[in-house]
Write a structure and sequence with these properties.
This protein is mainly α. The protein has one domain: Ferritin, core subunit, four-helix bundle (Ferritin, Up-down Bundle). It is 75% helix and 0% strand. The protein has five helices and no strands. α1 runs antiparallel to α2, α2 packs across α5 and α3 runs antiparallel to α4. It binds hydroxy diiron-OXO moiety (OFO). The site of hydroxy diiron-OXO moiety (OFO) has 8 residues, from α1, α2, α3 and α4.
Length: 167
């Protein structure tokens, strides 16, 4: 069984993962609107990953005999000033999620729940990868100054990204 405190904290995190899905879909929609199909695809795949993160936690809470309570999702930002702006915002969001996962791990430690600690380790590792991927993308974008032929080339490369189940 989960303690009430841990169950609430996991439910909050489920909401954050679903919000991340929603936010990345909103970024994808903006990118489609400025004809950046590859970047739009990148965030579409990212949204699918966030859906998986939310559902993995949703199922875990049930496996632990807990109760999932879904909360409302805030409205994601719809408009951005450029591709660079989107990538910067997504990196900022990933850093926020990393912080919240770390706090959730702190709660699992203070509640002395070893199964939750073990479960959360996957998310801790995943966040390292997500921050690294988006940071590299931002670095490349800055190299090409976020425009011109470099931007179009990067956009067509990102069109190849596909969702890998279990990520
Ligand atoms: Fe769920 O990993 Fe990004 O936010």
């Amino acid at each position: 069984m989960l303690t009430k405190k841990l169950q609430n904290a996991l439910n909050e995190q489920i909401n954050r993962e679903f919000f991340a899905e929603y936010l990345y879909l909103s970024m994808s929609a903006y990118l489609e609107s400025i004809e950046m199909e590859g970047f739009a695809n990148y965030f579409n795949v990212q949204a699918q990953e966030e859906h998986f993160h939310a559902m993995k936690m949703f199922n875990f809470v049930h496996d632990k005999g807990g109760r999932v309570i879904l909360k409302s999702l805030k409205e994601p930002k719809a408009n951005y000033s450029s591709v660079v702006d989107v990538i910067e915002e997504s990196l900022k969001h990933e850093k926020y999620v990393t912080k919240s996962i770390n706090e959730l791990m702190d709660t699992a430690i203070s509640e002395n729940d070893h199964s939750v600690k073990s479960f959360l380790q996957w998310y801790i590792d995943e966040q390292v990868e997500e921050e690294a991927t988006i940071s590299k993308l931002l670095a490349k974008l800055k190299l090409i100054k976020g425009e011109g032929l470099g931007l179009l080339t990067l956009d067509s490369q990102l069109l190849e990204r596909t969702y890998q189940p279990g990520k």
